[in-house]
């Protein structure tokens, strides 16, 4: 039996490897996962939430370059290395976009950057504020690959950091949906009778409520925030898993191997977990891939409505909300870039779900 199981797994893996879009989507998801974990290492703006604002350079096009003056702070940063890598740097330094500067006596005189041909404010800072004798270490040209948003923040950094929410909400929501859905579906399908009737009533009531409306209600009950959205989305997606598991178990519990397990005296828990569930996981895996995509879309919708991840936390849905009116103002990329990110990640999960379905189809 073990050899047969291994051979079926190998056959499914071989079929999956032959599916170009499935393999491509898998590696794309791995790449997004890597970016999500190490976003602050990869982002040009590694401050917490990539939230360095420069209103004088707001809404600049991709490839925009400006000279940036960094004025060191006297407050020392006591963050750990681990905290800086995974949660960003608590930046206390002041960054100022400038158009020109002159060093005279013991002062650095500079002119702040201004748009539309206007002359910026002239200011000065004492050279004693800079710990290094080489002042040029604090004056560097900064390039914004994706441009800046309406607050003057680096759009590329916000996109990279925002990938974390969209990616991890899929994992948390699918984990919660599997935990509840497999438990409820297994009980309903295996025991039947009144247990099945009660669980199906709960499933049908939950199913009848519009998903977005239910998520909004749960989010408002738990409060606005990062983890609240994760839990709310997960609590609305378990019904699909439960229905699939219930249907599969109703068919599987009449099979000969289940009858043999009962004859050997195994208890119900062992029969469900050790014998039935391993044989019905293929459709559950496929629906989990679809739930990943659905969770990303729901989170984006909640952030767009303003009840998802809260500012200054970066979220693709919130970025679209902040900039959707720029579509008619001649700067559509501010909303289109995060929109394309959502579309590509959702598409990747849908393609990998289709590839898994084809690979696990024993009739294929």
Describe the structure.
This protein is an alpha+beta fold and 364 residues long. It has two domains: 2-34 and 156-359, Orthogonal Bundle (MetI-like fold), CATH 1.10.3720.10; 63-148, no CATH class. 60% of the residues lie in helices and 10% in strands. It is built from 13 helices and five strands. Strands 4-3-2-1-5 form a five-stranded antiparallel beta sheet, with no helix packed on it. The longest helix is centred in the C-terminal third of the chain and has 38 residues, at 268-305. The protein is elongated, with a radius of gyration of 27 Å. It starts with a helix and ends in a 5-residue tail after the last helix. The mean pLDDT is 87. Its main location: membrane.
Characteristic key phrases:
cell membrane, 10% strand, transport, MetI-like, membrane, elongated, alpha+beta, Oligopeptide transport system permease protein OppC, MetI-like fold, 60% helix
Which stretches are poorly predicted, pLDDT < 50 over at least 5 residues?
Answer: none
Strand share of the residues? 5-15%
Number of helices: 13
Order of helices and strands: HHHEHEEEEHHHHHHHHH
Strand elements, count = 5
Strand order of the largest sheet: 4-3-2-1-5
- How much helix is in the residues? 55-70%
CATH architecture of the largest domain: Orthogonal Bundle
Q: Span between N and C termini?
A: 21 Å
> What overall form do the CA principal axes indicate?
elongated
**Count of the domains:** 2
CATH homologous superfamily identity of the largest domain: MetI-like
Question: How is the main sheet built?
Answer: 5 strands, antiparallel
Protein structure class: alpha+beta
The rounded Rg comes to 27 Å
What is the typical, i.e. mean, pLDDT?
A: 87
Output the CATH topology of the largest domain: MetI-like fold
Oligomeric assembly: single chain
Question: For this structure, what is the CATH class of the largest domain?
Answer: Mainly Alpha
């Amino acid at each position: 039996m073990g050899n047969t199981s291994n051979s079926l797994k190998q056959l499914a893996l071989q079929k999956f490897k032959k599916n170009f879009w499935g393999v491509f989507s898998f590696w794309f998801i791995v790449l997004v996962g890597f970016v999500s974990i190490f976003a602050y290492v990869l982002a040009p703006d590694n401050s917490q939430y990539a939230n360095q604002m420069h209103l004088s350079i707001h809404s600049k096009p991709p490839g925009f370059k400006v000279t940036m003056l960094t004025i060191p702070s006297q407050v020392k940063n006591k963050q750990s290395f681990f905290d800086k890598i995974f949660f960003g740097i608590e930046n206390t330094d002041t960054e100022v976009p400038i158009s020109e500067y002159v060093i005279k006596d013991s002062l650095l005189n500079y002119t702040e950057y201004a748009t539309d041909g206007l002359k910026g404010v002239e200011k000065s800072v004492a050279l004693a504020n800079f710990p290094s004798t080489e002042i040029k270490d604090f004056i560097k040209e900064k390039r914004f690959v994706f441009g800046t948003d309406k607050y003057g923040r680096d759009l590329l950094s916000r996109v990279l950091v925002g990938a974390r929410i969209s990616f991890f909400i899929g994992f948390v929501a699918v984990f919660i949906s599997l935990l509840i859905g497999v438990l409820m579906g297994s009980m309903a399908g295996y025991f039947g009778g009144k247990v099945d009737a009660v669980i199906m009533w709960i499933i049908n009531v939950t199913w009848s409520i519009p998903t977005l409306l239910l998520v909004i209600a749960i989010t408002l009950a738990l409060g606005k925030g990062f983890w609240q959205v994760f839990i709310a989305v997960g609590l609305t997606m378990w019904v699909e898993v439960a229905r699939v598991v219930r249907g599969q178990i109703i068919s599987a519990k009449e099979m000969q191997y289940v009858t043999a397990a009962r004859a050997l005296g195994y208890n119900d828990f062992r029969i469900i977990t050790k014998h039935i569930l391993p044989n019905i996981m293929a459709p559950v895996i496929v629906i989990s891939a679809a739930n990943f995509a659905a969770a990303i879309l729901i989170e984006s919708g909640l952030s767009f409505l303003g009840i998802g991840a809260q500012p200054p936390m970066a979220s693709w849905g919130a970025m679209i909300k902040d900039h959707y009116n720029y579509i008619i103002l001649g700067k559509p990329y501010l909303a289109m870039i995060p929109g394309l990110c959502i579309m590509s990640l959702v598409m990747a999960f849908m393609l990998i779900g289709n590839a898994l379905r084809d690979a696990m189809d024993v009739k294929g």
